[in-house]
Amino acid sequence: MRNLALFMHISLDGFTARADGAMNWIKISNEMFEYASARTQAADTALYGRKTFEMMDAYWPTAADKPGASKHDVEHSTWYKKTLKYVVSETAARQNTDKLKFISGDVKAQVSDLKKQDGGEIIMFGSPGLARYLMIEGLIDEFWLFVNPIVLGAGIPLFANVEIKLKLEKSTTFADVVIGLHYIKV
């Protein structure tokens, strides 16, 4: 059985974005990119909600080609292009390809089937609405949370109407005071 690992930036009070969707409060650093890159290399499949996929797909396919592209941009762009991507969407107007598949209808059954296939880890970036649904269905195995030193007070929550028992595997404090927490579901 393949693991489904969620990567998400959150505020101290558990929000993934402001109410308007803004994420300009998120702190990122090269140190965090190195940390996350080690995890993405274990994954050969990515799972996205439609909005997150559209945001990612607008940037990553050509990020390595831009003048002055960072080491992270080159590495992640390369990973993104070779990785099989699944997008959960009822409204996406694109066709399946060899590297892009769309999931609609019975999402629980299709994600469960995906986890049973041979392959590396399945990684999910962002997509808080999809993440909440998959948490409720018990399909997320690992949580890689980047806790940013801010209290938003309101916004788009990660953990809403769900109870999950987790075990802390590792915590990492980055120089920019973001704390990386790796939990596994128990």
From TrEMBL:
Q: Which residues form the Bacterial bifunctional deaminase-reductase C-terminal domain?
A: 4-177
Q: Which Pfam families match?
A: RibD_C (PF01872)
PANTHER family to which the protein is assigned, alphabetical: 2,5-DIAMINO-6-RIBOSYLAMINO-4(3H)-PYRIMIDINONE 5'-PHOSPHATE REDUCTASE, DIHYDROFOLATE REDUCTASE FAMILY PROTEIN (AFU_ORTHOLOGUE AFUA_8G06820)
Name the chain's protein. Answer: Dihydrofolate reductase family protein
Look up and give the organism this protein is from: Mucilaginibacter angelicae
Please name the taxonomic classification of the source.
Answer: Bacteria, Pseudomonadati, Bacteroidota, Sphingobacteriia, Sphingobacteriales
